[in-house]
Amino acid sequence: MHIERLQIQGFGRIRDRDIRLNAPITVLAGPNEAGKSTILHFVRAMLYGIPSRSYPGERFEPPGGGAHGGVLTARAEDGSAWTVSRFASREGGSASGRGERLSIVKTTAQGTAVHMTQDDLEKGLLGGLSRDMFKQLFAVTLTELQEIRTLQSEEMGSYLFHAGFGGGAGIVRAERRLFQEMERLYKPRGRVQESAKVLQSIERLEREISESRAYLSKYMAADSKLLETGKSIGETEQKRAGISDRLVLLRKAQDIRPQWLKWKEAALELAGLPEAASYPEEGVLRWHRLQEELDRLRIRQKELEHAEAAMNEQLGRLQPAESLLAKGPLIDRLAARREPIQVRIKELQEFSGEEAALREQLQRLLRQMDPRWGMAELRAFSGSAAEREAVRRYAAGFAGYDRRMESLAWEREQKGRQLEAAEYELRRAEAAYGEKKEDGTARFAMFIPKSKAELLPVWNEIQSAAERWRETRLERFSLQEMEEREAAVDKRIRALYRKLLWGSVLLTLLLPGALWLLQSPLGAGAALALLAAADAGLWLGSRRSSAKAERTSRRHAKSYDPGNEESRLSSLISSLVADPLAASARAEGKGEGRRDAFFAEQDLESALRELRKLVDAWLLWQDELERSKAEALSARQRTEALRHELASLRRKMDKEQGIFAELEKEWQHWLAERELQASSSPETVMDLFGFAEQGMELVRRLDWLDRKMRGLEQEIRAYEEECRLVLPDREESGPSTFFRLEAAERAWDEEKKLLRQREIVISRLEPVQEERIRVNGEIEAVTRSMASLLAEAKAADGEQFLRLGAASERRKELERNIRQLAVGMFGGWPRERGEALRCVLDEHDAASLDEAVKEAERELGQAELLLSELRQLQGRLLQERDDLARLCAQDTALQQLEEQKAALKDIAGQYAVRALCAEMIANTRSIYEREKQPQLLKLASSYFAELTRGSYARVVMKLGDKRLLAEHRSAGLIDSTLLSRGTAEQLYLAMRFALAGSMNGTTAVPLLLDDLFVNFDEERMCSALDLAGKLAAERQIIMLTCHRYILDHVRQRLPQAEIIRI
Amino acid sequence: MVSFKFIHAADLHLDSQFKGISGLSDNIRAYLRESTFASLERLTELAVRERADFMVISGDVYDAKDASLQAQLRFREALDRLGEHGIGVYVIHGNHDPLDGPRMGTSPKEHVHVFGPEFERVVAYRRQDRRPAAVIGGISYPTAKVTENTSRYFERSKDSSLFHIALLHANVDGDPAHETYSPCTRSDLNAAGYHYWALGHIHKRQILQENPHIVYPGNIQGRSIRETGAKGCYAVQVDEEGNVGLRFHELDTVRWFREELAIGGLESEESFHQMVEARLEAIRRERPGEMSIVRLTVIGRGRLHDRLEEGMAEELLHAFRRQAVQAAEGPGGFRGLVWIESFEIRSGPWIDREALLQEDSFLGELLRYGKRAGQDERIRSELFRGALQPLAANGELRRLLAETGEEERMGWLRRAEEMAVMLLADLGPETEGDKESDAH
């Protein structure tokens, strides 16, 4: 952009002024008040609008009124011309820039003029530069140059940190945030930070831990103390036990002292008593008791003797009669039997009456049976069961004989009739057989074999030979037929082959030719070869079939001869039929067949048929003949059998007759043996048996009566014998026997009474005597005991014994007393303690004993006290130890410390991360500032170096701080605020130049410098001018100055500069 | 030889604190404190149940040199319990509980042998028939720092053909993760001619070698995020031929887990919350009957990172912890309780870091600087000194910083970078235009 013309119609003091700016550097020179700054502001106002009334210092209203504004013409980089005409409207008066008349016309290089807006202007002509930027960077007055603020504004910042310096604010923010977080986490000597809390609790825990460390030593101390205490407790307890033992002893001594005195006394008395030999236990008592016993026994003895004498006297009075005494029992027995004997006598009389009656009856019966018989015969005829059986057998034997004879006679008659019938049958059968045989022999005389066995094989052979002959004949016919058929087939095949061969040969000749014509010699050749081969095949085929036909015909050339079989057959037939002539005569058909057989097969066939018929007929006759022969034979056999039977029957009847004669003889013998009448039949004998039985009954009864009577008589006699033994001998037995027996009985009863009395006396006497003996024994024993007592006590007599007894009693009493006292005193005390007690009693009297007890009690009290103290101590120590153990069991301080440390570490980690982050950002920034300065600062540095002639090497910008630093060649980095005014201005100028240079290059906005070099020394001013000259190559520079020397220097140094005086 | 069985445990660290855990409620804290004791009880129960003939404890019975009273009382109880069953106990002391620490004076127990500062050799007997079973050699730390190779004192019993067990608290082959006490090498141990080196000190379970065996059973209860996974002891069965069969038994009451949560692709807090829930549930399923502690490491780059850094992680952590505290007071108690130790944020914002690194911008410069600091120790220490100056003013924090490991410091650095990205990313050059137009 190049400002070409400024037409100021009214702006501040300047009115109607037209300035043309042609050179790259234009110096507007004029004195103060000439309007240099006004021109600067005019340019600003033209490009960005006239400031509103609220900024009167910058509005530059013409003091006299009139038009306020003007026209600015500038040429853009693309060659187009921009004409900006701007006038402040008086009426509007609003604070904004809208109250102005504005016309922006862009005339392109081609001459087209277009109206543009303010925005178009800023973008198209000024490259997007804002008003402030323009004001601060390009249209700069000294005021603005010195204002550090201009470099600190946000917008400037973005320019400054352009090209990678970007994010300065972000970096600051980041750093601020990091520092905040760090502060939250930790701050040295901070109190509220997290770390501070953790550190505090660490401190607390460490204190706790140092305390808990002491637990172990405390525990150990307590433990050892406990051990010690335990030991002292043991000792004290032992001591206390000793004392209390002694105390018990003393108290006991106190208690038993009276008893002890008594005991002592008793002991002394005992010592005084004479040494006694052994005195029987309870001697006196026993002595007295024995004495009493002896007295009592003596009295008893006397009583018994007396009683015995009285009884003996009584016995002497009661003497029994000796004779009666011996008979006594017998008399008793007889008296008892007297009654039954009288009954027996009566029975005897009755039995004799009965016997006489029975004998009468028997006589009668015997007469009935057989007048010869008496008792003896009757007894002999026993009539036993065996005899009866024998009689019955004889009766049966006779009856059986009659029955058998009757049946045999009937049978003989029967058989006789049968024999006659059989004999007739036989005769008839034999006649039939003879007739049949005659007939057959005549009919079949021509057969050579006469029997069936001979004929059948020959016939069978003929049949099989005939079969073979027929077969051969049939075969011959079928062969001929087959030959004919084959020959016909062959002929047809040969014709076919011939036809094919012809067709094929034709093809063989034609096809290759055609192919040859069709220009396919190779194909023709191939076809020729192929077809020729087919021809040859066909020709060979036809040859082969003809050959086969010949072969077949040859095969059946050998013929068959049937004559052989026929001759064989005829010879066989001839062997069967002996007489051909007879045969032909008798059987015409057959004979003819035979004759013809040699000529024609038909004849042979019929001959065979005839022969078969004949043979069949012969076989039939043979069978009939056999049958009739068998019939005749069986009839003869039957006749023979019947004859035999008749003969045996006759023999049987003869035998029966013999048996009957023998039986009769036996019976007569049997009767004679029994002395029976010979005429008696077995039936009468059976009746006799009945009578004999009755008789025997009577006999048996008689016998029984007899025996009974004899027994009774015997009994009565025996009784009378016995009575005689008892009774006095003077009289023989008589009717008075029973009477006398009664008297004897009475005498015996008297005697028995006496005997009973005597027995009573004797029974009383016996115990008295026994008791007397026992009492005597007892007296003796008592006397012996008393003697032994005396002996034991070594006493001469009873008196001495009693004296000794009294002394012994006393000793015993004393001893018991002593023992009782001892038990009372020392009971339950062990031996050695008893000894000790005795010693104490011996040594102390009552007073000193009391003293000793008091002493022991005092000591015991002391020991108890000590012990309880120790126990308490022990309890305390145990408690302490347990407390420690519990405390340590619950003690988690170390873990807590560990946790706090972990927490601290975590915080430290967080802090470290942030601190490191911050540090890294800071370090990177310094690296960046040092090594990675943006283009701008580099440029500024070089400009600054040029301006200061090398005094300052570098311009440094602190990131974020937005502090500008200058690095002096020797003094290092110096903050811009600390530089001298001139140098600072130079620095700022350098920055501006650099900034302007680093603006994006599409638009080179002109620089308007309003007397900026006033504070420069000459040298640096020259440098500044030189620099401006250099920069003018890139952009238009308009300098405003009121100083002549500057102007001079310009003239010298910048020949290209146009100087316009205002 | 006779066959026998023994339990090899080490590093009981009784009454040890759980490191790096905070925000506990009283009862959870009490439970954690009880955990080492509970594990000890399990150890004794195991020995009883397995009918072990004896038990060897290879040092660090107590966590601190001045072992807590509670620890001593509980250990004594455990010994008594083993004694009731006639199980012998052979103990050495290590760097955490050397012999010069204050101990309760207790009457020596017949079944317990505590090795002294000089090498000793004793014979252990089989329980059932009192037959000699093994020769046990051991040596305790007289003071906390033993820098001498004590393994060379171990000598075989020349006239004994029994199985030889060595008890040693040492860092074999110089594991850099642990303090190098009693430094020795595997060949040193092999040279001694012992059959079984029952070692302690390294808390990670490992069988360095077999035949002869060199075994670290690890500690019985994990106590910090550095001790994740199952913890316990070995039941060692030795047969007549001297063949060794090892069986590991879990004893830990509380188990440590480390889980990674990738936030890449996650959009909402809700989904992240669900992811955490799911992960906790998985742990709960793995240890349904016990308490677990988990560190959730957030990785990946995603939009959620900003929100996590801006307090969401903190809020979530508090919410889950509150939940856990409630659960612990509930009927279920500590069964299946999962406590979140922390969210370790290793994620980054949803920005192409690589592109940023290449970019000629303030952030690019910062990240390049961060990278340089990560690589160059000098720059890094400079950076840390400058940044952490204020912290050093406090003694406690100074100590804490001194304890901080390199890895952790690198983590901080990385997180600081991500934070810078988060704070400055929206100030990149692409948003400049907006800024400018806003100015009008």
Automatic annotation (TrEMBL), chain A:
For this UniProt record, give its keywords in alphabetical order, as a comma-separated list.
Coiled coil
Q: Name one Pfam family in it.
A: AAA_27
Residue limits of the YhaN AAA domain?
1-212
Q: Which domain of life is it from?
A: Bacteria
Coiled coil region boundaries: 287-314, 412-439, 625-666, 846-914
Answer yes or no on keyword Coiled coil: yes
Protein's recorded name: YhaN AAA domain-containing protein
TrEMBL record, chain B:
- Which residue windows are transmembrane per the record? none
Is Nuclease among this UniProt entry's keywords?
A: yes
Q: Which CDD domains match?
A: MPP_Mre11_N
Q: Name one GO molecular function term.
A: exonuclease activity
Fetch the InterPro entries from UniProt. Calcineurin-like_PHP (IPR004843), DNA_Repair-Maintenance_Comp (IPR050535), Metallo-depent_PP-like (IPR029052), Mre11_N (IPR041796), Pesterase_YhaO (IPR014576)
Name the PANTHER family for this protein.
Answer: COMPONENT OF ATP-DEPENDENT DSDNA EXONUCLEASE, PHOSPHOESTERASE
Alphabetical keyword list: Exonuclease, Hydrolase, Nuclease
Family matches, as SUPFAM superfamilies: Metallo-dependent phosphatases (SSF56300)
One Pfam family cited in the UniProt record for this chain: Metallophos
List the protein's name. Exonuclease SbcCD subunit D
What's the domain of life for this entry?
Bacteria
Which residues are in the Calcineurin-like phosphoesterase domain?
4-204
